[in-house]
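tokens incoming
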């Protein structure tokens, strides 16, 4: 049985107790809901992989309440510190060298010498992290390969019966996952486009970080090409609708669902997975998607759209 917990002191206490006992609790963050387990507990982390049916080579992000909680976990370089100061709490994940003896299950990093860490901004996530008092490993709270959840209801639809609880914090405001930044010889590299735009990273770094291509040596191993996929087939850059298709629009146009009538990319990001979930609920088989500009958050949106449209193993 999966219980729905309210974002109250009693809800946080119950969620923290479940986590301390090795249970799994889905939590709201500003990006998407995460499936949280105690990062230091091998059994809890193993059960995250099982609940999601996630390939075990794919490492997890550790979420913490504050910068001090990172001290035992990772080495923070000057550049990483500058990004942290600028964007935390917020939709940024940093991949940093793990300290020896870090209190983290080896399953979290899937054998890598680096650890992905994030300080989320969502007040409910932060309240729970404080109540729990340690690091929480949390991938997006969806069955592996499916659409990330942006409401408690999405989480329930995918994982009810497989996890202990969902902490309900309403709809996620950013709507796409965090931007993941790693470092190669001291230079920042974007491993996954996400809620912090490249232009904003560039302002802090003083240079525009490169986007790591799939299959390159340092990459986010979870970036399987088919991912974030609704059940229907997805056709991109659609300028008109073909017979049998439902049109997912962007900007003022005639369409079935619109990412943002105003053509606002932040609004489109917040709506993207919600609309995918709606299309799944309506059992739509063919989805045409209007072009979305490749700037700002449009980079993360187009990344998710391309993965949704990629050839599938099934
Ligand atoms: O917004 C988010 O980042 C959400 C919320 C819940 O925080 N989490 C999320 O987690 O999207 P997940 O597990 O779905 O995606 C994490 C990505 C994966 O692609 C994984 O391969 C990559 O981070 N990753 C984790 N640890 C890594 C590491 N040490 N080096 C490179 N990539 C890493
Ligand atoms: Mg995910």
């Amino acid at each position: 049985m999966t219980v729905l917990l309210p974002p109250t002191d009693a809800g946080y206490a119950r969620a923290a107790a479940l986590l301390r006992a090795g249970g799994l609790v889905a939590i709201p963050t500003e990006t998407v809901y995460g499936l949280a387990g105690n990062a230091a507990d091998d059994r809890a982390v193993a059960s995250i992989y099982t609940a999601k049916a996630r390939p075990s080579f794919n490492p997890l992000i550790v979420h913490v309440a504050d910068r001090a909680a990172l001290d035992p976990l990772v080495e923070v370089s000057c550049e990483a510190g500058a990004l942290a100061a600028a964007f935390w709490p917020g939709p940024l994940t940093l991949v940093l060298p793990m300290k020896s003896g870090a209190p983290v299950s080896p399953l979290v990093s899937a054998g890598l010498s680096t650890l992905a860490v994030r300080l989320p901004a969502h007040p409910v996530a932060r309240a729970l992290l404080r109540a729990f008092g340690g690091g929480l490993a949390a991938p997006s709270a969806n069955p592996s390969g499916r659409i990330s959840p942006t409401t408690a209801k999405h989480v329930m639809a995918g994982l009810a019966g497989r996890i202990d609880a969902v902490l309900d914090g309403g709809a996620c405001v950013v709507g796409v996952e965090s931007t993941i930044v790693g470092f190669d010889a001291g230079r920042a590299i974007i491993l996954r486009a996400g809620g912090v735009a490249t232009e904003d990273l560039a302002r802090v770094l003083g240079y525009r970080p490169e986007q790591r291509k799939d299959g390159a040596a340092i990459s986010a191993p979870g970036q399987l090409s088919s991912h974030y996929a609704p059940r229907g087939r997805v056709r991109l850059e659609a300028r008109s609708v073909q017979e049998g298709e439902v049109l997912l629009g962007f900007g003022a146009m005639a369409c079935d669902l619109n990412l943002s009538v105003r053509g606002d990319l932040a609004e489109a990001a917040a709506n993207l997975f919600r609309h995918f979930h709606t299309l799944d609920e309506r059992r739509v088989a063919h989805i045409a998607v209007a072009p979305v500009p490749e700037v700002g958050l449009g980079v993360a949106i187009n990344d998710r759209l391309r993965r949704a449209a990629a050839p599938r193993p099934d």
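note: The longest helix spans residues 265-281.
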